[in-house]
Amino acid sequence: MSLPPGFLDELRTRTSLSQVVGRKVMWDQRKSNQGKGDMWAPCPFHHEKSASFHVDDRKGYYYCFGCHAKGDAISFIKDTENVGFMEAVEILAREAGMPIPERDPRAQEKADKHTELAKVMEQAVQFYRLQLKTGAGAPARDYLDKRGLKESTQERFEIGFAPDGWQNLWDHLTGKGVAPDLIIEAGLAKPSAKGGKPYDTFRNRIMFPIRDIRKRCIAFGGRAMDPADNAKYLNSPETPLFDKSRTLYNHAPAREAAGKGAPLIVAEGYMDVIALSEAGFEGSVAPLGTAVTEHQLQMLWRVSDEPVIALDGDTAGLRAAHRVVDIALPLLEAGKSLRFALMPEGKDPDDMIRAEGAGAVRKLVEEAIPMVNLLWSRETEGRVYDSPERKAALDKALREKIKLIRDPSIRSHYGEAIKEMRYDLFRPKREAWAPSGGGQRQGGFQKTRGKGGWQPPQPPVLTETKNSYLAAGNDASQERMRITVILAMLLRHPSLARDFDYALERMDCHTPELSALRHVVLSLRSTAYDAAYEEAAERLGYETLENLLATPHLRIVPALKEAADEDLVRMTLAEELAKLEAHRGLKAEIAEAEEDLAHLADEAVTWRLSQAAAAVGRAQSGTQEDNTEYDLGKNGARISKSEREAFAALMAQIGHTDSSD
User: Fold this and answer.
1) Residues 458, 486: contact at Cβ < 8 Å?
2) pLDDT per residue as tens digits for the range 610-650
3) What is the pLDDT of residues 251-276, one digit of tens each?
4) Would you say 190 and 198 are in contact if contact means Cβ atoms under 8 Å apart?
5) In 3D, which of 8, 113, 17, 19 has the Cα closest to residue 62?
6) Where is the signal peptide (predicted)?
7) What is the DSSP string of 543-593?
């Protein structure tokens, strides 16, 4: 049945999701805020004691942090009442006092055609299943036995066999009274170009029924028994029932398993999915002969926030993983991402299970790497960055990829992660100083062996250096303290985060813990402190959060006192963020000056620096300058003694300790 435009939107507007859900759950009064429509309860879809089921009444959506069930009022009625979509709509419409529109004859005709085609497909399933048990199906049965597929597994996945011959299925279905045009429209047969009888699409193949989320058979996949066949695997053509870019093999059983806590694993083909499911990974699906599409990604994210892409450990598998990354980057949303479990070289999940058991695959799935790591490895693996030009090329390539991310918060976090990996790649490697023994002398220095291999030595730290202001890291420490204060204030007053979201995204967090807390603060669903703290603790870990908030300097911040009003907090936030921004600008100016100094090439730059040095000298000394002149650089510029001294001081401040050059 086709509904008029706007009907469902009006129905959702008139329906209170918290009232619909409230008939099935007991709200947690401690975590819930009824006035703001922020409600929490134990999940009605799986057995638990904690209140991990969240209802946002204003947005009209629910989500369970335990089993990942999510949806709106219609899907809640469907799943809890075990009814279809239209029945759920009718239930809610009656409660909201909205009349159900009259049926659209064309929509009904289309629905009837789909029903007819689905019935034809079911007849084909039964035909192929019977053919597997005949004498003609013996080679297929032998093949399945060699692949370790027990008879119960074959029954579960309804595996069949299409015998060799041109009209076996055609003759069977027409003999049952099925209209020829329905057989062709279902993709089970093709018209003859020579004017003869239509011929079967699948011949001499092991058959895998492909079912949609409603568990209707909409297509088949067939594996060739003849090694010389042009196509090892063949899928049904596009039909009114089947669009391979919007379909996943084993979708419905995988969704049910993922709803009970199983990981959602995306494998490459039918046999991988069957092997994974039989090994206990029942939340396994596969695309149908193509790379994962945008539509399939959206389908995966409706089932799980972080599906695991488990591809073959060969060059083709790695290329497929990289294609998935490129497709996924523009689609990323907060909490929606992918992880990648790459099999050892030359193996697929089926091989891994048969050779090493389910435990080996489970370990790979549990240790699946985040998408940003795969993006980084693609751009850096096998390359040497021994010149500024190569490093610049890497920076450009990564910037172009990160630009594809539409969500500004995720784009910012990707930038931070890439920056940390870049720092690890390019930073000078240092080892402990070895004055004698235990190492190898190279180039006049003693080198020691560490985890990272042979690395340059690190000289002993002088007492004067230890006691200096810069060595103490005061600048960075003050920044970390300021960031901690900002995040602690926002955790206590979550409603203010939206007012400062842009400044928060620009903050250069110094540690993964602070970066993670910033991400939590930006995505908090609750504006109540207790609920916000619980949510942050669940996502960061209680110990991590308590360690962050146990810093002594937090106790003396007035805006963090329990009695602090919101105006004081807002003013303090604005001041602290402004100080961070000012410091960011100062660092940028120093970096720009360093770059200019590193590339002195003309008299104008040298003159500008000499004038700046002179100004610094006059400001610092306040004395009559000595007019004795000195050469500066190779371009003939001359400065006075006081200017030279001030210039040396300026160079020392920005890291050039030898000003004689």
Assistant:
1) no
2) 666 555 555 445 444 444 444 444 444 455 555 555 556 55
3) 989 988 887 788 999 998 899 999 99
4) yes
5) 17
6) none
7) HHHHHHHT-GGGGG-GGGSTT--HHHHHHHHHHHHHHHHHHHHHHHHHHHH
